[in-house]
Amino acid sequence: MRHAHIHLIIGALFATVLFAAPAQAAPVLCEKYGAAAIQNNRYIVQNNVWGASTAQCIDVNQNGGFTITQSAHNNATNGAPAAYPSIYAGCHYASCTTGSGLPMQASASGFGALRSSVSMTYPGSGTYNASYDLWFDPTPRTDGQNTGAELMIWLNRAGSIQPIGSQVGTVNLAGATWQVWFGNTGWNVISYVRTSPATSLDFSINTFYSDVVSRGYGQRSWYLTSVQAGFEPWIGGTGLAVNSFSFGSGGGTTDTSPPTTPGNPAASGTTATGTTLSWGASTDSGGSGLAGYDILRATGDTFTRVGSSTTTSYTDTGLSPATTYRYRIQARDGAGNLSPESGTVTVTTQQGGGGGSCAVTATTQNAWNNGYVIQPVTVTNRGTSALNGWAVTFPLPSGHTITGIWNASYTVSGGTVTVRNLGHNGGLGPNASTTFGFQATRPAGNTQVPSGYTCA
């Protein structure tokens, strides 16, 4: 069942109350939006009862955590949670902790060294999740709502609840297996749900964000603004506790060693519009672990990234018939280190044919003074045979910049945007549809949104 994960939107309405003056010593917080700074403002603990009027109190642990001592919540499990009591480092609605180094751009040299850890205790009853909330914004924002990506990491969940959106995959990260969920609420929400519950986690921030970027849900140009850990209770919640929490650069454990070079790729199953690649696995000895592979493609002299995989195979779709392509593979680890590129395989697609054709429609979901969200953009196969890939093109108005896209990949050339399917949504039977969406900025006062979409 879905829930509306919008606690920070509502929290913005109460930002003055919540963060006006966090106390340095407040052992018990019962105010809906009460907060306390601990360890000389290294972290801030927040009660944050944003989704209910029922009582909640938390006992702040000055050593780096808190315990929910009272929680009378009884929210419907098909709606929003009652609260997000949590501890955080960074900047949240103009309240910044000391010494976090945040906001930090995800392309910065120090980003790969960022780590966090948490230890939690769960009661025997209640409906809740135990989760991290990592926020990213296209700008180094210290106040207001982030509009890039919300990266959630669910260590545990109890009851009939699930993340925003729908499950889009499964991945092995940080020594565990996670379901990957994606939705959009005006910003991308990417949730990693551990398939077996855990009471603790110690991880590199980049381990999860690298996967977000590889799926097209985040950008390296975006900034990490805060790292939060806590709970979203729907029913009950008394006894939930963060026993300890840490965030920092990881000191001397920074991984600077790249993975080994992947084996040379081979191609199979080539059609007029697609081909399947396979290659030998890389290894990583730097400590952060192998995170996946980037697929590089060229039709001329320049190789560009066209997709990624967490396995040793990848199906590239949306290709042109009777065209020669060259491919290389590059491995990446959890710290963002890249291996040398593999050798090259050359593939020529078959001659085209068949009755496949596609149509596209686009909806403006939200627009504001200097930006907008287009969602859904629906691609439909109007032909009589299956499509094995599609590409949508449209002109981007002058001064506009795409800041994020989901369920697709894209390139921009000369003011024209070309959007292509990912591996999971390129095959469309007759009358079948799929969707994608994107977010963009525009000059202040400019009211244009893209038009003139075409599909091939």
UniProtKB/TrEMBL annotation:
CBM2 domain residues are: 351-456
Fibronectin type-III domain boundaries? 261-352
For this protein, the record's InterPro entries field holds: CBD2, CBM2/CBM3_carb-bd_dom_sf, CBM2_carb-bd_dom_sf, ConA-like_dom_sf, FN3_dom, FN3_sf, GH11/12, GH12
Q: Name one GO molecular function term.
A: cellulase activity
Residues in the signal sequence: 1-25
Q: Which domain of life is it from?
A: Bacteria
Keyword Iron-sulfur assigned to the entry: answer is: no
Q: Cite the entry's keywords alphabetically.
A: Carbohydrate metabolism, Glycosidase, Hydrolase, Polysaccharide degradation, Signal
What does the entry give for GO biological process? polysaccharide catabolic process
SMART domains membership: CBD_II, FN3
Q: Composition bias, kind Low complexity: at what positions? A: 254-280
Q: Where is this region: Disordered?
A: 250-280
Q: Which family does it belong to?
A: Belongs to the glycosyl hydrolase 12 (cellulase H) family.
What protein name does the entry list? Fibronectin type III domain-containing protein
- Native organism is Nonomuraea solani
